[in-house]
Design brief:
mainly alpha, Ammonium transporter fold, 15 helices
Amino acid sequence: MLFLSAASLFHQGTAHAAPAVVTDTGTTAWMLTSTALVLLMIPGLAMFYGGLVRTKNVIGTMMHSFSAMVIIGVLWPLFGYALSFGHGILGGFVGWDNRYFMLQGIDDTIMPTHIPEYVFAMFQGKFAIITPALIAGAFAERVNFKGYAVFIALWSVFVYSPICHWVWAADGFLFNLGAAGAIDFAGGTVVHISSGITALVAALYLGKRRAYPNNVMHPNNLVMTLTGAGLLWVGWFGFNAGSAIASDLATARALTVTQVAAAAGAFTWMIIEIFQHGKATSLGVASGILAGLVAITPAAGVVQPSGAFALGALAALFCYTAILIKSKLGYDDSLDAFGVHGVGGIVGALALVFFIRPSWMADAAAKVGGSWTVWQQLGVQATAVGVTLVYAGLVSFILLFLVEKTIGLRISENDEMSGLDHSMHGEHGYGLINLN
């Protein structure tokens, strides 16, 4: 009888064991697509930036984006993923998990979201690639390629990975701040604010381009810039909707508000230009698209289309103003990396609280067993923005200083005159030389 009872208990225990997590092929297919869409954004960024510089710098500028694909593409599976999404170490400053080194321990892992962990790791890796590539717009036309390569490698380790861990890892302190953590659905803080403030620090530290602002520095190919903006818009659907890590209602919501915010940003920028100059420009449309996309990035999981429209319009207004202020102050953020990504990210991260879906606020209140107000969430958002600005700005300055004093970052005047294409790569984008 004892034997039969023990056997019965064993049978019951095994019968009620938790089932193994299985792959959802639909969600996995969407996440594979999203990963490819985010990767597409990096050549899109290369075209966007490459068209805005002078002829002699087009290859050098595009190489900043493509080299990020290569350098961060190597570092991410080595230890970037472990630093970002591993268990917190050093007091939660950064993550680590031996299984994530070279992704060696996730070969058979299916996540609770029913996708292979390989897919999640590669999806997040594309965010890690595009973030340092965004910074390059601030110091376009005047940096040493070797110094740039070392800088983005160090920046990825010492700036991106810790901030990513704080905001997106389950044990990150910003992830757990307040009732429901700092809201950053797809990277307003992790990607755009961190890269934006770094861009501003870099532009100030490295100084102006030769003859700026006295010489007019016209874009070499606005057709390429518009094409790049279009690729970024398309890729952003993977960037935002893919961040739901699902293929469901949340995905549809994120995709919808992404479209609305991008259109609203471009529309608002067009209206501003028409009122101020009497005509809308292609560069203005491209800038408005980006401003709207940046602002909706942190908010894509919590706002409705009306909120997306408001965020896109606000971002266009604030980013346009930031670019005007830059011109008056005279610092040389070559391609307005801070003016669009930094300012747009801050607008989105803070203003989203006024457009949050009521059901989200109700869920947040339930987690703390009481009430949770918009103003309390604004405090959480402001904390995340402030921490990111201070940490990324300070550490970026230290890294810029170290690279400049060792390898060198600012190119010589002769190299700047001849252009990055020739001086850094021994090539010419169009077979032409322009020494202006």
